[in-house]
Amino acid sequence: MSDRRAKIEAMLADDPSDTFLRYSLAMEQRSEGLHDEAIAGFTSLTKDQPPYVPAFFMAAQLLVDLDQVNEARGFLRDGIEQARAQNDTHAAGEMSEYLAMLGREGE
């Protein structure tokens, strides 16, 4: 475990609902190759009220890296919808471009 991850986990122990710390932990897990844990962390953030929009994009990127493109498309579609609902046109645009780059299912 990295020192960075240990620090994040210690801070999360004090405030387990801190969205940014939860996102930071998932990002650290991703960088350490703990893919299942990272995806679980991102997924949890997408289920918050309101959902944490950057988590949709990061989950999708990680899934593409793992050759799980169809699952990535689902995160992107949901993320675009949530970004629009939260008036985050920048995030919606980025995810739309990434989704278009991935092409259609079955291609």
Automatic annotation (TrEMBL):
It comes from Roseimaritima ulvae. It comes from the Bacteria. This is Tetratricopeptide repeat protein.
